[in-house]
Amino acid sequence: MIIKPKVRGFVCVTAHPTGCAAHVQEWIDYVKAKGPIKPGPKKVLVIGASTGYGLASRITAAFGSGAATLGIFFERPSEEGRPATPGWYNSIAFTNAARAAGLYAKNIMGDAFTDEIKQQALNLIRADMGQVDLVIYSLAAPRRTHPRTGVVHKSCLKPVGAPYTNKTVDTDKGIVSEVTIEPAIEAEVADTAAVMGGEDWEMWMNALRDANLLAPGATSVAYSYIGPEVTWAIYKNGTIGLAKNDLERAGSSIDASLKALGGGRAFISVNKALVTQASSAIPVVPLYISILYKLMKARGTHEGCIEQMQRLFATQLYNGKSLTLDSGGRVRVDDLEMIPEIQAAVREIWPTVTTENLEQTTDIAGYRVEFLKNFGFGLAGVDYDAEVEPHVPMI
């Protein structure tokens, strides 16, 4: 079939297998061009490995350090007349490239929140890898069925305490408008923490520890975002931000456990605002990203997912020195985003943006390009008018 992008609100409902493979190859080429990361990880578990920062971490570990990788993800295969999700195609492309380079790469497709998938991972690590020395936790999910209680928790993106009104943009139609979001009720705050907080990360790390599958000195990292004050009501101080506070709580607990186990470490990496499937769903944030991209590209400091993760690995995780932490004990690779001059310029531009001047005051065009690349569209060298086979079996 011929596959074209079909955008519905903040998501593209189609994905292009050849384009996704080309996007993955772009990331691989970038990491290889930056040179080896030494000493790097050797055996890596990536929980949430198919898109965004999780995929970029897996590529960096494999092609920057020659690491064996096991990826966990929950994606949808193709159906009659409907392509698979981009994460499905990404994972196949990565696995093919890694194996062609002589690297171990295996996948487990399923719900990482379940005990069943955890057990599958433990069995595979025990059989093939022995122990892992790096665990990346990069899950972004809309819901979680708790493995102990059976309760289904659904996350939401809402402010806490009071309604929130601010500008937002329909990135597809280019319309700037005001949005008002009603505050979350107490149960929604708790549910979002149950999905996006740190409990599942702890469950994974406890399971690996109890099965003796963590190498001495093992590292684990989870990803977060703080951002500027203009987004705090919907992010940092909203339901998702409170869930990230619980992620930090879990990180401290896991860090203490790993240190006791053999000198390991766990921490949160606060990353840059980027166009991902997750960030596109958050009101206000796409407008902020569009302004940010314009400013950072003008300064030559813009980074995407792969640039962020390559820098995290090379300058923090495996730099041969100790981590550089902020006052909250977090690694910050959002440092170039949060430069005072950049944020002052964002604050200056923000109130001036309208539907009429959106193209001039922001990089909405760049936002759209990055958005579609996440689904395999707009990649150089791909013939999007050619027939392509949407059914690609997982390997």
Structure in words:
With 395 residues, the protein is of the alpha/beta class. It has one domain: 3-Layer(aba) Sandwich (Rossmann fold), CATH 3.40.50.720. The strands form four sheets. A seven-stranded parallel sheet has the order 5-4-3-6-11-12-13, sandwiched between helices. A hairpin with a 6-residue loop joins strand 7 and strand 8. Helix 2 packs parallel to helix 3. The two termini are 22 Å apart. The model has no long low-confidence stretch (mean pLDDT 95).
Count of spatially separate domains: 1
Whole-number mean pLDDT: 95
Secondary-structure content class: alpha/beta
* Total count of helical runs of at least 4 residues: 13
Kindly report the CATH topology.
Answer: Rossmann fold
Indicate the radius of gyration in whole angstroms: 20 Å
How would a textbook summarize the main sheet? 7 strands, parallel
- The multimeric state of the shown protein is single chain
CATH 2nd-level architecture: 3-Layer(aba) Sandwich
Series of H and E elements:
EEHEHEHEHEEEEEHHEHHEHHEHHH
Unreliable parts: none
Shape assignment: globular
Query: Looking at this structure, what is the CATH superfamily?
Result: NAD(P)-binding Rossmann-like Domain
Give the terminus-to-terminus CA distance: 22 Å
Number of strands: 13
Residue share in β-strands: 15-25%
Please provide a brief summary of the model.
The chain has 395 residues and is α/β, with parallel strands linked by helices. It has helices spanning 17-34, 52-65, 86-100, 115-129, 186-196, 199-210, 229-232, 239-262, 285-299, 305-317, 340-349, 358-361, 364-373; strands spanning 7-8, 11-12, 43-47, 68-73, 105-109, 132-137, 143-145, 152-154, 164-170, 175-181, 214-224, 265-270, 331-332.
